[in-house]
Write a structure and sequence with these properties.
By secondary structure, the chain is an all-beta fold. It has a single domain, classed as Kelch-type beta propeller (Neuraminidase), CATH 2.120.10.80. The strands form eight sheets. The protein has a five-stranded antiparallel beta sheet, with no helix packed on it. A four-stranded antiparallel beta sheet has the order 3-2-1-29, with no helix packed on it. A four-stranded antiparallel beta sheet has the order 5-6-8-9, with no helix packed on it. Strand 2 and strand 3 form a beta hairpin. This is KLHL25.
């Protein structure tokens, strides 16, 4: 029989694809890690074959899909790299229809959706960067094919993108006018239509999001208030609840759910980079530090995978 585990191996949380301190110099990076939250270990895994930054990553089953981003020469990419967590090897999938960076992605009904971001008219950033994109693409792993679906109501980049209750949710982001956005955009694949679901408690971008049941948790980011703040959004009632603040202010952090808890890693605030993996327990509304990462980093993605084991 098959046994489901979260992450890259026994007791592990997920994959951290990271940017190291070189990110300020404009170079891409190629590191990926396994986070073992029980053993409190951060384990290096097979490097991404093509270094990049400002990409997105999502998991479908035991595979992690890394989409787009900017390469070492700052060219915007359509490439899709796939990491098989069982065999620990990389392969290429069909490229996206639009080159993009600063986008979000999420799995929904065994397909991958890529949302928003930026592209570049000249192909090299920052020569002619575009405004935030409205375009949304859907990838079918079985057919290895991308198709366009209904565009966002409002184009955004640097938004938090998750799936819950058979729908996609996009929180905040940077608008086409380069302002912070305070809208929740929701996509129903059965209708191929986006609606404005709710207003966020504040405008924000570079936030982290993770899902527990019908509850979506939004943490940190570039906000009008504190980057340590965290909220819970009920996607059935569309109601917001403020929860306990994180232990540190974090922009560009990433989060995921494992079991009945949330985990947040990396990020920065001002000149300080966060060196900890923190855990949120919703039953006690408290945060605590699980472990430190090998060096302070700004993660580009943090995902969990199912690993199927033989009987």
């Amino acid at each position: 029989m098959a046994s489901a585990e979260v992450g890259f191996g026994s007791s592990s949380l997920g994959a951290v694809r990271s940017q190291d301190p070189r990110w300020t110099e404009g170079r891409g990076v190629d590191k990926i890690y396994q986070v073992d939250h029980k053993a409190k270990e951060i384990i290096p895994k097979a490097d991404l074959p093509s270094p990049r930054k400002e990409f997105s990553a999502s998991a479908i089953g035991c595979k992690v899909y890394v989409t787009g981003g900017r390469g070492s020469e700052n060219g915007v990419s359509k490439d899709v790299w796939v990491y098989n967590t069982v065999h620990e090897e990389w392969s290429k999938a069909a490229p996206m229809l639009i080159a993009r960076f600063g986008h979000g992605s999420a799995e929904l009904e065994n397909c991958l959706y890529v949302v928003g971001g930026h592209t570049s008219l000249a192909g090299v950033f920052p020569a002619s960067p575009s405004v935030s994109l409205k375009q949304v693409e859907k990838y079918d792993p079985g057919a290895n094919k991308w198709t366009m679906v209904a565009p966002l109501r409002d184009g955004v980049s640097n938004a938090a993108v998750v799936s819950a209750k058979l729908k996609l949710f996009v929180f905040g982001g940077t608008s086409i006018h380069r302002d912070m956005v305070s809208k929740v955009q929701c996509y129903d694949p059965s209708e191929n239509r986006w609606i404005i679901k709710a207003e966020c408690p504040q405008p924000w971008r570079y936030t982290a999001a993770a899902v527990l049941g019908s509850q979506i948790f939004i943490m940190g980011g570039d906000t009008e208030f504190t980057a340590a703040s965290a909220y819970r959004f009920d996607c059935e009632s569309n109601q917001w609840t403020r929860i306990g603040d994180m232990t540190a202010k974090r922009m560009s952090c990433h989060a995921l759910a494992s079991g009945n808890k949330l985990y947040v890693v990396g990020g920065y605030f001002g000149t300080q980079r966060c060196k900890t993996l923190d855990c949120y327990d919703p039953t006690s509304d408290t945060w605590n530090c699980v472990t430190t990462v090998p060096y302070s980093l700004i993660p580009t993605a943090f995902v969990s995978t199912w690993k199927h084991l033989p009987a």
